[in-house]
Design a protein that fits this description.
One of its GO terms (biological process) is proteolysis. The chain is an alpha+beta fold. It has helices spanning 13-19, 36-47, 51-59, 71-84, 97-109, and strands at residues 21-31, 63-69, 86-95.
Amino acid sequence: MRVLRDGQSGGGANEGAKAEKTVFEVKLESFEARAKIKIIKEVRRIIGVGLKEAMKLVVKAPTVLKTGLSKEEGEEVVEKLNALGAEAVLQTRVSDIPSLFWNSLFHLIS
């Protein structure tokens, strides 16, 4: 038998909805041709890849550069890219993996 303390919920379907986490991704929409080299260098620094991989990502814009960021981290990356002459946007993505994990775990122990 499970004993609940003050402030704890009994679980259920609503608990899974609370466990959902909002994550953000940075998408490079386009860039100015004159700023291409600067943008490639910045993309390389941001995502930690080699020069060739960064160049491939920049050239195939629009593309998602980095996922799983907090809002603050994403805004910082977007500002840096936009200052260099790129058109980057911050997109919201809802991750339901934590809720799926906790829902399945809850059903196993109850």
